[in-house]
Amino acid sequence: MARRVSLASGAAVLALLSGLTMALPASGAQTGVAVSIPSGAGLAASAPGYMPSSITVVIGVNNTVTWTNADPVHHTVTPSTEPAGNPWTVGSGDMAQNAVYSFTFTVPGTYTYGCAYHSTMAGTIVVKAGVTTTPEFPTASLAVILFAVIAAVMLAAPRLRASRMGSMAA
Ligand SMILES: [Cu+2]
Question: How far is the CA of 77 from the centre of ligand 1 (A)?
Answer without folding.
Answer: 8
